[in-house]
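target protein:
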Amino acid sequence: MDEAIEISSFVLRFVRATSPEGAVRYHGSIRHIQSNQVVNFSRWEDALAFIETYVPLDMPEAARRLQSPDDLP
């Protein structure tokens, strides 16, 4: 039996910006290698939504709402 294989590769770029007052904000970009499509994001759920256009993810809702690495347990 032949198995169908699909590969989707992504490059993520995270930027940590600190204001003069010390407030930290994360944003970034994500590139789908096969299509060369790039999306900028400031919320993790937006990056996940882009990934899901190529790869069906089955993640808990709480994981989708993460705003920054500081939100990780």
